[in-house]
Each structure stands twice: as structure tokens, then as C-alpha cells.
Amino acid sequence: MDLAKQNGAKHAATKASGLDGVVVADTALSEVDGERGRLVVGGYDIEALAGRVGFEELCALLWTGALPDAATRGAIAEALAEGRTLAFEQIPSLGEALVAEDGSAGLMACVAHFGARAGWRSEGRPAWVELARVTGAVATFAAAWARRRAGGAPIAPDAKLGHAADFLRMVRGAAAPEAAARALDAYLVTVADHGMNASTFTARVVASTGSDLVSAIVAAIGALKGPLHGGAPGPVLDMLDAIGEPSQAAAWIAAELAAGRRIMGMGHRIYRVRDPRAAVLERAIGELERDGTAGAGARLALARATERAAETRLAERHPDRPLKANVEFYTAVLLDAVGLPRELFTPTFAVGRAAGWCAHVEEQRRAGRLIRPASRYVGAVPA
Ligand code: COA
Questions:
Q1: Which atom of ligand 1 is nearest to the CA of 267?
Q2: Edge-to-edge order in the sheet of strand 38-41
Q3: Which of 263, 264, 355, 372 has its CA 20 to 30 A from that of 64?
Q4: pLDDT (tens digit per residue) in 321-369
Q5: What is the number of structural domains in the chain?
Q6: 51 with 133, same domain?
Q7: Using one digit for the tens of pLDDT, what is the confidence trace for 206-263?
């Protein structure tokens, strides 16, 4: 038997396109039930966390295994703020990184720079100090990139503020309304972890080689920025802008599908029902609307009409494959309503998901085994 045939025989039973259903790790961090539409993070349903606990508590849950008491919560808030401040101190030496055309590319360069400098490691303090500093730094760099892009100067962090409120302030240049900070906090909690998604897997592969935390986070940002993963919310907002009015949604969706294009924010590799995070974010946008946030109500109505139209059309085209709204659909509406520019949507996803990536890196380090799958060779073999 030739080499290709031998390998084909060896791997035929295990090859899974896109690794669907392949278990690559044991994790205590989060579980996605795609059939029932359930997301459990650290032992809690996402509905019991988003809007109920803040990002600091969620970080504690992921990094220490439990929701924190007041002292631990305070220490985590402090370490996140240290990360934001350390990152801000590095801005003068960042050079071209902050003027990158793409926010995620800029973030990768800034975070890599952060990792190359001393001062962010735990040095005898709990391991989560390091995780918090890197997570905190992601927020400062993302905000500074947005400020530069808008032609302004980066704004220094305020260690007294919560992570979400301070991020929003650093982007907007002024203290954000409380309702907006609350909604963003709910968003960061909602997206902090989500099973073995592509960017988390990326972070774990890097960690499994024995490489450092920052390298894993930089690689994960690179995976997140792709349009099939975290790059969808900007295009979702473009879609809503193009549709304009709820009454136009059905025709627009039909034309888009007829042209062979995908509807951004619809469909998911794992969920066969509506992504539970879509409902959580929809609830948070509803609160912004009740609080009188300008434009939130109209955008929500347009998004709901668009979702209904897309779901109906996709069901007609793919009767055997449920394609429903995913987290990105309402992310676009929420992040727009709290005043973030659309180029910052994917970096903002990274601000929240950094917490999960860091936790997975730690978990992977404890597992201690190199991730090294196989491939099936289908090329030529020398005679
Ligand atoms: N719009 C239109 N058609 C879609 C679709 C969408 N959003 N999502 C999937 N489909 C179609 C595919 O074209 C494919 O059709 P085919 O069998 O006729 O070729 C079928 O549904 C199955 O799609 P597939 O690519 O196998 O699904 P997947 O599990 O690999 O993809 C996503 C999952 C998320 C990548 C996919 O649904 C998608 O591209 N969604 C839009 C981007 C997005 O919202 N990403 C954020 C994810 S959280």
C-alpha cells in the first residue's frame, strides 16, 4: 500500500471536517448545548450571569472557579486596572501599531508589544493577577486605537471605575451614562467564554506548546477577527443600515440570498436553536431603550424585523438546517447603542473574550499535553 493510502486508512475513521464534534479538552469553564440553546459558564446559566454580575465577578468565576467575595472582587478590579494603566504607559512607545487600518490587527501588535515588556507578570502573587493585567491591557489598547482613528488622543484609564465603564469612557472621551456602562458590562459578561470556539482553541494550541500567555492571546485575536467568528457584528450593522426600515427587511434579505451571499449574524456551528446570548443581549438593549437611549428602540425594532425575515427565508432554503440569530446579531445593535464605532466591534469582543482565553490558557497549562492533530496526505508521493 502506498503512503497516501496507508495514511488514508489510518485517519479515515477520525477525520472531521472543521473538527465538528471532536473533543479536544476537558474544561470546567463553559459548556454549550447547541440542541437546547443553553450556555453554562462556571456552573451558571448565562441568563443568571449577564446583567446580574459584573465583568469583574465573571473574571473571578473563570479564573478562581467561584464567584468572588468582596475582597477578591476588589483585588481583581485592581489588577484589571493595573493592566489598563500599564498598557497606557506603553502607548508612547507603540509607534505604528496604534494607527493600523484594522482594529484587531492594531490590537495584536499592541498586545504583543505589551508582552515583550516587563512588569505584567504575577511575580509571586496569584496567577490570576497576570491574567487580569493582560485582560485589562486589551481594553486600553482597543480604546486607544479607536481614539487615534477618530483623530483624538488616547485617554488615560481611571482605576476607580469598573472595567466596562472605564473602557467606554476611554473610547468616548467622557464618562458614559450609567445605563450604557451597564449594558456594555452585560455584553462583556455574555461573550467572556463560549466552549471550544475557534479563538479559544487557538489560544489553547499556543499554550499547549509551552509558549507564553501573551502569545496565546495575540494568536486568539487573530482567529477572532475572521468574519466567520468575531468579525460579523460590523457587517450586521452595515446590513441594518442598508435595510433602513423594518418594512424593507424581507425584500433585502431575499435579494441578498438570491445573490448567493450569507446573512451576517445568522447561523452557528453548534446552535440548532437561537443562540441564548442573542436573547440576553436583546434584553440588555431593551433596558437601554427603557432608559431613553437615543435610537435604541428604533434599531431594536429594525433588528427584530430583519431577524424574522432572515429566519423565515433561511428556513425555506435550508429546511433541514436551522439557521437562527447568533450572538453577533444583537451585539451590533448593543455596541452601536452604547456609542462604540463599528470598527471597534471586533476588538470589543476581544475585550470580553480575553477573560475566557486567559482562563483556557491556564487550564491548558495544567493539562500539560501538546495539541498536535494529524492530517491526511493527499499530495503526490515520489515513485
Ligand atoms: N446565511 C446564509 N446561508 C447560510 C448562513 C448564513 N448566515 N449560514 C449558513 N448558511 C448555509 C450555508 O451556505 C450552507 O449552505 P449549503 O449547504 O447550501 O452550502 C449551509 O447553511 C450550512 O452552512 P455551513 O457553512 O456548513 O455552516 P457552518 O457550521 O460551517 O457555519 C457559520 C457556521 C457561523 C460560519 C455560518 O452560519 C455563517 O457564515 N454565518 C454568518 C457569519 C456569522 O454570523 N458569524 C458569527 C458566528 S457567531
A1: 37
A2: 30-33, 38-41, 44-45
A3: 372
A4: 999 999 999 999 999 999 999 999 999 999 999 999 999 999 999 999 9
A5: 2
A6: yes
A7: 999 999 999 999 999 999 999 888 988 889 999 999 999 999 999 999 999 999 999 9
Q: Which of 33-37, 123-127, 354-358 has the lowest mean pLDDT?
A: 123-127
| Domain assignment present for 320 | yes
Cell digits of residue 188: 462583556
Same domain, 128 and 239: no
Claim to verify: residue 204 and residue 220 sit in the same structural domain: yes
Active site residues: 268, 328
Beta-carbon-side half-sphere exposure of residue 365 (alpha carbons within 13 Å) = 13
What atom in ligand 1 is closest to the CA of residue 266? 7
**Range of the structural domain that residue 295 is part of:** 233-337
Average pLDDT, the chain: 94
Ligand 1 neighbourhood includes 228 CB (under 6 angstroms):
yes
Q: Is 278 in the pocket of ligand 1 (CB under 6 A)?
A: no
Cα(82)–Cα(160) distance, rounded to whole angstroms? 11
Q: Is residue 19 part of a domain?
A: no
Q: Of 299, 320, 337, which residue is a domain's last?
A: 337
Q: Calculate how far, in angstroms, residue 262's C-alpha sits from the geometric centre of ligand 1.
A: 7
**Residues 176 and 297 occupy one common structural domain:** no
C-beta of 267 in contact with ligand 1 (< 6 A): yes
Q: How far is the CA of 80 from the centre of ligand 1 (A)?
A: 36
Q: What are 83-123's pLDDT values in tens digits?
A: 999 999 999 999 888 888 999 999 999 999 999 887 888 88
Ligand 1 centroid, distance to 265 Cα (angstroms): 10
Q: Is the CB of 195 under 6 A from ligand 1?
A: no
Q: Is the CB of 117 under 6 A from ligand 1?
A: no
267 and 352 in a single domain? The answer is: no
- Whether residues 189 and 248 share a domain: the answer is no
**341/318 Cα distance (integer angstroms):** 34
DSSP-derived secondary structure for 89-134: HHGGG-GGGGG-SSHHHHHHHHHHHHHHSSS-S-TTS-HHHHHHHH
Residue 45 lies in a domain: yes
Residues 314 and 278 in one domain: yes
pLDDT attached to residue 1: 47
Residues 360, 333 within the same domain? no
For residue 299, what is the domain's CATH number?
A: 1.10.230.10
Long-range residue pairs from 124-128, CB within 8 A, at least 24 positions apart, any chain: 127/63, 127/362, 128/59, 128/60, 128/63, 128/64, 128/76, 128/79
